[in-house]
Amino acid sequence: SAVISQKPSRDICQRGTSLTIQCQVDSQVTMMFWYRQQPGQSLTLIATANQGSEATYESGFVIDKFPISRPNLTFSTLTVSNMSPEDSSIYLCSVKQDLVPNTEAFFGQGTRLTVV
Amino acid sequence: RKEVEQDPGPFNVPEGATVAFNCTYSNSASQSFFWYRQDCRKEPKLLMSVYSSGNEDGRFTAQLNRASQYISLLIRDSKLSDSATYLCVVTFGPGGYNKLIFGAGTRLAVHP
C-alpha cells in the first residue's frame, strides 16, 4: 500500500487567482495521477504525471489551466490557474504500485476547492 | 457514450436486504476491473477486484462478463455501514502504465 499526504485539505479562493496542490507519497512511484471530482459526480482523470517528462493530459484538460510538476518520484503538484467558480471541486492525487499493471490505486484525502 | 456507466441510484434498502449493482463499460480492450467504495467526503478505497471467474469476499460477490462488457456487485445481508457510493472502475492502457477510469457511482443507503 501507499500513504499519500495531500495539502491543502481545503481552500476558498478568489476568482482569477491560482492554487497549487501538493501531493507527497511515502514511496517512490513512476506515475502519479490527478483527478477532479465535481459535486455529486465521479472522478475524472485530469492528467498523468511522470517523473522526468511532461504530464499527459486527458481530453478537455490543458497544461495552461492545470500545470503539473513532478520533480522527483515521491512528489507532485497540480496548479489550478486563473480560477473560476466552475473550478470548485475536489482534487485528488493517486498512485498505483509502480509499473505493475492492473493493481489498485491509492488516493490522497483530496483538496476541497471553493472558488468565489 | 460514457466509458463506464452505472445506475446512479440511490438504492434505499433495509438492513439485511440483498442489493445488486450493475456496470457496463465501452472499451473492449479494458484489462482489469474493480469496485471501489467512497464514503461521504472521503477518498475512494478499493472494495474488491473483479475476475472473470467471479469472486467473493464475505458478503460481497463480484462478477465479470467480458463478452457483454458487464460487471456486477452483489451485497448480501446489508449493514448500515454499507451505506456509501460504489464506484465501478476499469483500466486500460499499456502494461504498467494503464490508467483507471471511474463510473459515476451508485449510491446505497441502508436503513434500520
Key terms:
heterodimer; A: 116 residues; 11 strands; globular; B: 112 residues; mainly beta
Describe this structure in words.
The complex is a heterodimer of chains A (116) and B (112). Chain A has 116 residues and is an all-beta fold. Chain A has strands at residues 4-7, 10-13, 19-25, 31-37, 43-50, 56-57, 68-72, 75-80, 89-96, 105-107, 111-115. In chain A, strands 2, 4, 5, 6, 9, 10 and 11 form a seven-stranded mixed sheet that branches. Chain B has 112 residues and is mainly β. Chain B is built from no helices and eleven strands. Chain B is globular. The model of chain B has no long low-confidence stretch (mean pLDDT 91). The A-B interface holds A 30-31, 33, 35, 41-45, 48, 92, 94, 96, 98-102, 104-105, 107-110, 112 and B 31-32, 34, 41-46, 49, 87, 91, 95-105.
Gap between N and C termini of chain A, in Å? Answer: 37 Å
Cα Rg of chain B: 14 Å
Q: What fraction, in percent, of the residue positions of chain A are helical?
A: under 10%
Q: Can you count the beta strands of chain A?
A: 11
- Assembly form of the protein: heterodimer
Q: List the uncertain runs of chain B.
A: none
Largest interface: A-B, 25 and 23 residues
State the separation between the terminal residues of chain B, measured CA to CA: 37 Å
Radius of gyration of chain A: 13 Å
Give the helices and strands of chain A as they follow along the chain: EEEEEEEEEEE
| Form type of chain B | globular
The DSSP helix count of chain A reads: 0
Total beta-strand segments of chain B? 11
Structural class of chain A: mainly beta
In terms of topology, how is this protein built?
The complex is a heterodimer of chains A (116) and B (112).
Chain A: E1 4-7, E2 10-13, E3 19-25, E4 31-37, E5 43-50, E6 56-57, E7 68-72, E8 75-80, E9 89-96, E10 105-107, E11 111-115
Chain B: E1 4-6, E2 11-14, E3 19-25, E4 32-38, E5 45-50, E6 55-57, E7 60-65, E8 70-75, E9 84-92, E10 99-102, E11 106-111
Parallel strand pairs in B: 2-11
Antiparallel strand pairs in B: 1-3, 3-8, 4-5, 4-9, 6-7, 7-8, 9-10, 9-11
